[in-house]
Amino acid sequence: MTETAPRPTLEAVAERAGVSRATVSRVVNGAAGVRESLVERVRRAVEELGYVPNQAARSLVTRRHDAVAVVIAEPEARVFADPFFARQLRGISKELTAHDNQLVLLLTEGRDDHARVARYLSGGHVDGALVFSLHLDDPLPGLIQSAGVPTVFGGRPGWSDGRGGVVYVDSDNRGGAREAVRHLVALGRSRVAHITGPLDQTSAVDRLDGFRDVMVDVDPCLVAEADFTAAGGERAMRQLLENCPDLDAVFAANDLTAAGALRVLREHGRSVPDDVAVIGFDDMLAVAEQTEPALTTVRQDIEEMGRLMARLLLRGLDRDESAETVGGAPSNVILPTTLVRRASA
Question: Is the pLDDT reported for residue 33 higher than 80?
Answer without folding.
Answer: no
